[in-house]
């Protein structure tokens, strides 16, 4: 039952991480025990130990991440599946066509339409402004 679970697999691949987590919890419990019995020195040692164990655990996580990155860059193999961009675009076009057939417009399309209207209005205003301020030069001054 537990032999093929993802957690067991990760624990076997990265044994220092669960060990670090366990030692961090032990240090925290040691500090809590000291606080409970008002032993300040024990609580202080426990908290310092917790910080050290937590730091070592993070270092182990980063180390395993770096090692895994180096392994995948050397072999060229990754756990990611390739993306079929043509299929994704075809599905998006089909979904958009279906929405248009139903009379729906996507928020992205509404944004593009609003932007186009705004640009058209600004262009019209600039043309009107130019025609108002442009004065015709009389032919005698040409």
Characterise the protein shown here:
α2 (16-36) packs antiparallel against α3. The chain is an all-alpha fold. The protein has helices spanning 6-13, 16-36, 40-75, 85-102, 107-133. The longest helix has 36 residues, at 40-75. The chain is elongated and about 100 Å long.
The mean pLDDT is 84
Compute the separation of the termini in Å.
Answer: 96 Å
Number of distinct helices: 5
Percent helix among the residues? over 70%
Structural class, by secondary structure, is: mainly alpha
Radius of gyration, whole Å: 33 Å
Give me the count of strands.
Answer: 0
Share in β-strands: under 5%
Largest sheet: none
> Helix-strand pattern, N to C?
HHHHH
Low-confidence stretches: none
Shape: elongated
List the helices and strands and how they pair.
Blueprint: H1 6-13, H2 16-36, H3 40-75, H4 85-102, H5 107-133
Helix pairs in contact: 2-3
Task: Give short descriptive properties of this protein.
single chain; 142 residues; mainly alpha; 5 helices; 77% helix
